[in-house]
Amino acid sequence: MPVEKIQTLIVGGGQAGLAMSEHLIGHGIEHLVLERHRIAERWRTERWDSLVANGPAWHDRFPNREFTDIDPDAFAAKDRVADYFEAYAEMIAAPVRCGVEVLEVGRIEGRAGFRVETSDGVIEAANVIAATGPFQKPVIPPIVADDSGLTQLHSNAYKNPDQLPAGGVLVVGAGSSGVQIAAELRRAGRDVYLSVGPHNRPPRRYRGLDNVWWLGVLGKWDAQVAEQGKEHVTIAVSGADGGETVDFRELAEHGMTLVGMTASFKGGVMTFAPDLADNIAMGDADFLSVLDEADDYALRHGLDLPDEPDARRIGPLPACAIDPLLELDLAAAGVATILWATGFAVDFSWLKVDTFDADGRPRHQRGVSEEPGVYFLGLPWLSRRGSSFIWGVWHDARFIADQIAIQRDYLAQLAPAR
Ligand SMILES: Cc1cc2nc3c(=O)[nH]c(=O)nc-3n(C[C@H](O)[C@H](O)[C@H](O)COP(=O)(O)OP(=O)(O)OC[C@H]3O[C@@H](n4cnc5c(N)ncnc54)[C@H](O)[C@@H]3O)c2cc1C
Predict the structure, then answer these.
(1) How far is the CA of 82 from the centre of ligand 1 (A)?
(2) Whole-number Å distance between alpha carbons of 357 and 378
(3) pTM recorded for the entire structure
(4) Atom of ligand 1 lying closest to residue 14 CA
């Protein structure tokens, strides 16, 4: 059988793969998107049932299409986001082949291009773009053994409270996923312990404008490196319930027990670092610094925005943070489940080319790898803070399409007849 040949192969049919396709279409570059499941599958099935976008519909979208039938200031439910990308693929006539998994990619010896082994045969491609997601492989710190008798699951496997065995839940990690899941479990009547690490918690809205707007005008989406010392700081932000600022004091008021970083587990007892108050203080400081920057921006630009002095009123620490639990006997406390909202890693084990560091992290500049013809898209901080988010990936895809077009034009110089 002749081997199928394609100029540029995009692996992954999420938002990154579609953005890439749109810009390649713009350059007239022949390409194919291979998606192992369905378009935007992770939005469909790899997130909890009640998830809504973290940004309002006017912002968390691609420039060339708005969400229909949803208030631009509302937060789209996860299935609406998946529907949006399906409709987008149709709108741009993206050449997406679903149900085909890329199993291995390697450089072809002795000539240009890559051999791509898929679940549906072999393809040869001159370029390969890995658009397999910023959050591919759940990370669970090795604290509790698998045979501990406790139910343990990662946030990517959580669907709803009914899925968990009866009893309390320890949610480890208080970024956007952890706080939203913990709040949902508490509302469902569960005893919830939330392990809170260093975090930022920007105001959902300030002086009438959403956080995503402030991030935009303050240049924070476009920041090219994380602030020094804040590289591993999670961001607690939520669009749930119409969009509320994440407020740990309020969560505690609703009966949630906050604890510091989860440190170790022995003899059924979990230990926590004595850092809860510090972590909350760090979140408060970040919160206030955003207000300061926003006020400064409004002043310098002469914006007539409503004042919001109440936003600066931060209440006293909750009792659980003043005298924090440092140990918890999980069985005695009735905790049957540990829900790890501890983030993700990448897995490029299928990509057998020379552009990875010793830890398997891709080496690249703005997505252009050290292996000519291999590109990455959608990774956190690929070029800037916005890179792994809906609106940001579209702009990174444009840059990569430009690079591929530039290389195509150089190679065209090799053509014999001119
Ligand atoms: C809980 C959560 C909430 C989020 N909320 C928001 C939000 O509100 N706003 C926002 O802007 N961002 C949000 N993000 C961040 C980001 O937008 C999403 O992670 C988004 O799914 C990333 O899109 P992507 O196309 O880069 O990757 P993915 O959506 O992960 O898509 C990659 C695709 O590649 C496919 N694939 C993987 N390996 C292969 C293979 N070997 N062969 C073929 N196909 C393969 C997968 O099936 C998948 O469909 C959120 C992330 C999480 C985890």
Answers:
(1) 10
(2) 18
(3) 0.97
(4) 25
